């Protein structure tokens, strides 16, 4: 349904240097498939999501939706955004406190001139689990719980009958008791409506519960991807292993030193080598520090970009 091919996104950095926020990404989301994009803050996940939505223009590469390359003309983007909708992580920040639930959900249908607004809004609220919708239409965001506010945001996306949802940390701001409900809702929407979804998250536990495939991103590039069970039960990349080690049932905690490097100064060789926990115990790290790794292609099979994992 939605595919990024050799995608690069750069921004102007300090001293005239270019920050490579997305530095060569191939990623596809199939019909009815949920893909989790996982990584630390600052690894490029949100920039990639914004580019997939057409909110950022790639420096190189292209976005393809349903077999057609994305055009950046106003009319084409408007049509595209009816098919691909965004769900933000902070519903209190994304909902206008002066607008009722009806006004919030009706905003998209009004922009796209959809007929029968009342029916569209009520149907979207019902599909998002706010039933009966009449109870919520005239409420304001501050009168709702966190889970209800997130359902309103999801209803606003569903009002346009999209084919793909891009959810950026959709449960990060919610209590643990509500997280499962929102994840179950996304799964139910996939099953009932055939929706595809890209779920952007730093939480591999969330990916385990919801995703068909996982793509692990580090410093602008996908370093490991494949079916969720294969990646999370047998991670090959040391970065994926470190992310998994923080889960409660992990036998050993792996502590990464430092922060992800500055995207204006990406390390030579493997971009993860300055923080890699395997480097101190590896006799020869010449390849890790000097030999570039290939960009991972689009495939549903497990794959990893790591000299030590593939040696």
UniProtKB/TrEMBL annotation:
Molecular function GO labels: ATP binding; ATP hydrolysis activity
Coiled-coil region list: none
Record-linked InterPro entries: AAA+_ATPase, ABC_transp_ATP-bind, ABC_transporter-like_ATP-bd, ABC_transporter-like_CS, Oligopep_ABC_C, P-loop_NTPase
Domain of life: Bacteria
Protein's GO biological process: peptide transport; transmembrane transport
SUPFAM superfamilies per UniProt: P-loop containing nucleoside triphosphate hydrolases
Gene3D superfamilies given in the database record: P-loop containing nucleotide triphosphate hydrolases
Pfam families recorded: ABC_tran, oligo_HPY
PROSITE patterns linked: ABC_TRANSPORTER_1 (PS00211), ABC_TRANSPORTER_2 (PS50893)
Family stated for the protein in its record: Belongs to the ABC transporter superfamily.
Name of this protein: ABC transporter ATP-binding protein
Organism ancestry: Bacteria, Bacillati, Actinomycetota, Actinomycetes, Propionibacteriales
């Amino acid at each position: 349904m939605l595919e990024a091919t050799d995608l690069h996104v750069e921004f102007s950095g300090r001293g005239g240097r270019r920050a490579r926020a997305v530095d060569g990404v191939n990623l596809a989301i199939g019909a009815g498939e949920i893909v989790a994009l996982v990584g630390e803050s600052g690894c490029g996940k949100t920039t990639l999501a914004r580019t997939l939505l057409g909110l950022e223009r790639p420096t190189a590469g292209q976005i393809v939706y349903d077999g057609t390359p994305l055009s950046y003309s106003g009319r084409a983007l408007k049509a595209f955004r009816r098919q691909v909708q965004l769900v933000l992580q902070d519903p209190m920040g994304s909902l206008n406190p002066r607008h009722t639930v009806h006004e919030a959900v009706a905003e998209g249908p009004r922009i796209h001139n959809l007929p029968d607004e009342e029916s569209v809004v009520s149907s979207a609220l019902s599909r998002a689990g706010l039933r009966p919708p009449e109870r919520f239409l005239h409420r304001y965001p501050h009168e709702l719980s966190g889970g209800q506010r997130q359902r309103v945001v999801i209803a606003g996306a569903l009002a346009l009958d999209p084919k793909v949802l891009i959810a950026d940390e959709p449960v990060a701001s919610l209590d643990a008791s509500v997280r499962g409900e929102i994840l179950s809702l996304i799964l139910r929407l996939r099953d009932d409506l055939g929706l595809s979804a890209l779920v952007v998250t730093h939480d591999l536990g969330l990916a385990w519960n919801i995703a068909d495939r996982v793509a692990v991103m580090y410093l602008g590039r996908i370093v490991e991807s494949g079916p969720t069970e294969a990646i999370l039960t047998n991670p090959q990349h040391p970065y994926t292993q470190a992310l998994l080690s923080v889960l409660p049932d992990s036998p050993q905690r792996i502590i990464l030193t430092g922060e992800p490097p500055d995207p204006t100064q990406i390390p030579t060789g493997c971009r993860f080598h300055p923080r890699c926990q395997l480097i101190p115990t590896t006799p020869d790290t010449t390849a890790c520090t000097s030999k570039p790794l290939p960009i991972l292609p689009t495939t549903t099979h497990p794959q990893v970009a790591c000299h030590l994992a593939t040696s």
